Amino acid sequence: MLRLAVLASRAPEAQAARAELEAVHPTVPLDECEAVVAIGGDGFMLQTLHRTQSLGVPVFGMKTGSVGFLMNAFRTDGLDQRIRAAQAAVLRPLEMIAISDSGASSGALAFNEVSLLRQTKQAAKIRIDLNGSVRLPELVCDGIMVATPAGSTAYNLSAHGPILPLDSEVLAMTPISPFRPRRWRGAILRSDAEVSFEILDHYKRPVSATADSTEIRDVVEVRVRQAQDRTVRLLFDPEHNLEERILAEQFES
Q1: Percentage of the chain surpassing pLDDT 90?
Q2: In 10 A of CB 40, how many CB atoms?
Q3: DSSP of 182-249, one letter per residue?
Q4: Cα distance between residue 234 and residue 57, in whole Å
Q5: Are the CB atoms for 17 and 74 separated by under 8 Å?
Q6: Quick one: pLDDT at residue 67?
Q7: Looking at the structure, do residues 87 and 180 belong to the same domain, yes or no?
Q8: What is the largest CA-CA distance in the chain?
Q9: In which domain, by residue range, is 131 found?
Q10: Which pLDDT tens digit goes with each residue over 121-180?
Q11: Which of 2, 52, 227, 249 counts the most CB atoms within 10 A of its CB?
Q12: Are residues 86 and 125 located together in one domain of the fold?
């Protein structure tokens, strides 16, 4: 039997599901497990990936109720066999370095996206550099994001960004409510691109930067690139694999 560690969100449904699972399957601490079972929603799955990414073990998510995008259906029967038969999706996070107006530098990882958002009623003004060259001298907008393929169906899709195949080796750069250039719709970047955002007039038009759930406020510069030495493995039932879900999203009406 697989050595499984079980993590669950604080939601009552997730805690009840965890108790039900632990009643039929023995569990072990995180540092002794062969795989992690995460019970909750997609937000909790992201928390779990950040918490366990240094362990080098796969994560199998289960959600009570409707099936989340990063989760499998919850059931306790045959869990060992399900995990052994699961298909793995390898995710590589983004690395964000944010410099605040105080000069402090903060780093964070993002499995979905790095997003920049205006903090006040004033629209943000952002300069975009790509691989050391200025590509857009001034974007006036509510914000902008860089999304991974796995994150392209999340906030990126809500902002009318493109859905990216999981193995595409590209990133989506998507503006949020762009005002000028009015017709700019964003860009698709190579996964090895290095992006730098400079916040123009940052005292009058403050901006925050968020990597998944880690927020840095009053930033003056944000650098984003794909991590080269960090990966995580998500496990999916064959009928609910992540690549198929991303493909299916593109054909939904």
Answers
A1: 84
A2: 25
A3: TT---EEEETT-EEEEEEETTTTS-EEEEETTEEE-SEEEEEEEE-SS--EEEEE-GGG-HHHHHHHH
A4: 9
A5: yes
A6: 62
A7: no
A8: 59
A9: 94-226
A10: 999 999 999 999 999 999 999 999 999 998 998 999 999 999 998 888 999 999 999 999
A11: 52
A12: no
| Length of the chain (residues) | 253
Look over the chain and give the mean of its residue pLDDT values, rounded to a whole number: 93
Specify the amino acid at residue 237: D
Nearest to 169 by CA among 90, 85, 109: 90
Q: How many domains are there within the chain?
A: 2
Does residue 205 sit in the same domain as residue 236? no
Q: Name the residue with tokens 């790095």.
A: 114
- Cα separation of 96 and 75, whole Å? 36
Tell whether 106 and 221 lie within a shared domain: yes
Whether residue 58 is preceded by a cis peptide bond, meaning omega within 30 degrees of 0, is no
Looking at residue 174, what DSSP letter applies? E
Buried b (16+ CB within 10 A) or exposed e, 154-163: bbbbebebbb
